[in-house]
Amino acid sequence: MQTAASAPASGLLRRARLRHFLRARREQITPEEVGLVNFDRRRTPGLRREEVAALAGVGVSWYTWLEQGRDINVSEGIVNAVSNALRLEDCERDYFHRLAGHNPPPRTPDRGQEGGHARMRALVEGWSPNPAYITDRYGRVELASRSARSLFHIGTRGHNCVVKFFTESATREKYPDTEEVGRGLVAQFRAQSARFPQDPEFGRIAGRLSEMSPHFAELWDCHEVVGPNQGLRRIALPQAGVTVFDRVVMRVPESPESLLTLYIAQSGAERAGRRDEPAGFGAEAA
């Protein structure tokens, strides 16, 4: 919990990081890279502050205050202009936005992202015999491996994992730790909703699900939040009994609103079987 005393301290730390970041990036760019003619011999590397200000279309004094880490309000437009002047990569722009107190803007897919999606697809589909899947911001399946479709009875896309858990007893029965799993799903769903405060679909899903599941309604009213949770997960397999998996959850780099979930059977729980059809996972769902 952040106290009144810790809030100013966190602001100082954020501005200090911003100061070091902007100076480091400015010093890594040569005048020639941005089309400036370098007539004199420079004592310091990179661009001067006034050159960055000119390239960004902001005042020299204002940019100096920004790089000095002064407590000033920085608009998203200014962040974008300075990002362009410093030729920041996407991850650097996101970092700059956060240090300036803004959420990073959403990006439209480009060729690099399309290549990233292809890599994610190859990873998910090649993860067998262990399950793997990608879900969107609402918990709906975007892509699932063959073993995940078999084990969780989900299609290649469209199923909502949160809705499925609270409306299908057969899904809940797969988890010996039912209460822990349900609580984690709801807390993660609420945390996701806070990342997209203008999206009404979270409220619609929560409202419908509260009517269908009193248990969900009870957990939703607890207002617990958690990030992408990971750790051990016990799952009852059709033929092999309860098996312990390491569960890893991470955001998809090319689509940060999506989550990649990977299951890894613990070595003591691994079973013999074909690489593409692990024993005990049952027949693949349609």
From TrEMBL:
InterPro entries: Cro/C1-type_HTH, Lambda_DNA-bd_dom_sf, MLTR_LBD. Pfam families: HTH_31 (PF13560), MLTR_LBD (PF17765). One of its GO terms (molecular function) is DNA binding. It comes from Streptomyces globosus. SUPFAM superfamilies: lambda repressor-like DNA-binding domains. This is XRE family transcriptional regulator. It comes from the Bacteria. Residues 21-93 form the HTH cro/C1-type domain.
